[in-house]
Amino acid sequence: MRLFFKVLKKTGLEKKFNFSIPRILNGSKVIIPVLGEIGKGNLYARELWMHTLLKELLDKKAGMIVDVGVNIGQTLIHYKTAFPSRDYIGFEPNPDCIFYTNKLIQANKWRNCSLIPCAVFERSELLEINYYSAATDSMASVVENFRSDRKVIKKEWVAAFDGNTISRLLTGKQIGVLKIDVEGAELEVLLQLSAMIITQRSFVIVELLLPQKGNEETGWQKINAIHDFFEANKYAAVRILKNTDSSLAGLERVMHPSQGLTRKNADHLYCPEELWPLNES
Are 33 and 39 spatial neighbours (Cβ–Cβ below 8 Å)? Predict the structure, then answer.
């Protein structure tokens, strides 16, 4: 498979081919569209820990997932191969990612999926998103200079909506898990969805990236504010441990996410205190 893509790239044909490939992911058949250069990452088993963790969390707490930062549907695949009939709502400002993920949903005939083409932010406005590589760059961010070590290759205007607007979409929904992966805007998303989190006591999976050189002060302030919010609302901070094959190695409670934080262990679970430890609740 990788050799095939190398040949396409070498011959300059990579951007011209659109096709779909059936794969077995998490024990289920999934049709993966490949649209030019977009979608190849979904052909291989990645972030296996997410599938296992979602099954464990949603076994403890009924409800759906709200996925803030869809990218090309990586979390969606893990979720739908575990819970094919449950509702899914995903927020993603990148238009290329929205286009691709809609094709992924259609190819697999997944039901009860809603994609919202916007960022979740503190104000309803137009934001510039910064791209550092490809059109579906998973590191793209609406936070200016978030990746100070990388050159911005493209900027694009995208829509953003605040919590008051977003809450109308979520009214009456039972939210078991909230996943936030938004490259530096985690605090802004958290504050906009705070009422839902507090009311529903949802599990929250969030990526807390080690602050970049030149942005250390702001980065640590945001991480501290995120942790303070959860601590004030009686949530346990839990680091997600992974094996070398990306499967789930375990869950480790930490007093603060700054303890031992590296680029490789940025994924954390905030768990309601009344549900921790998971295997005892």
Answer: yes
212/186 Cα distance (integer angstroms): 15
Answer yes or no: are the C-beta atoms of 253 and 247 closer than 8 Å. no
For residues 243 and 84, give the distance between their C-alpha atoms in angstroms, rounded to a whole number: 26
Rounded distance between C-alpha atoms, residue 223 and residue 217, angstroms: 10
The mean pLDDT values, 10 residues at a time, for the chain of 281 residues are 60 72 96 91 93 97 96 97 98 94 98 97 92 69 65 86 94 97 90 96 95 84 96 98 97 94 94 91 49
Give the dihedral of Cα atoms 280, 236, 177, 101; nearest 10 deg. Answer: -120
Token digits of residue 248: 């789930």
With 0-12 / 13-18 / 19 or more C-beta atoms within 10 angstroms meaning exposed / middle / buried, residue 171 is exposed
DSSP state string for 182-250:
-TT-HHHHHHHTHHHHHHHT-EEEEE-PPPPTT-HHHHHHHHHHHHHHHHHTTEEEEEEEE-TTS-EEE
Question: Which range marks the domain in which residue 272 is found?
Answer: 2-280
Number of domains making up the chain: 1
Q: Is-contact 250 184, C-beta < 8 A?
A: no
CATH number at 137 reads 3.40.50.150
Closest CA to 184 of 204, 211, 166: 211
